[in-house]
Amino acid sequence: MNKLILAKSAGFCYGVRRAVERAEQSAEASIPYVMLGPVIHNSQVIEHLARMGVGCVEHLQEIPGETGAIIRSHGVGRPIYKELKERKIPIIDATCPNVSRIHKLAVDAEK
Fold this sequence. Notes:
13% strand
């Protein structure tokens, strides 16, 4: 009999796990939410979220009225946040904290 050993680190990293949990929680919100691009690159997870009622759009213009936006785990640029705020679209930011830190470093370096 062959022995299967599963690595302790198997599965999603904490940033991806956090993003998926936030998207799942959005299904229970008082308004509908859509992912602005897939929250992670895993078709099975995206299908699971779709079954929960969490849709996916590729562009801001596709977000229906009275609907919130979920920012994907690898984040989006400042112009997207600005437009979401201007359009008063509720946001669930599922950006990985490590990615957010890198984005902040890039902004600081740009200044």
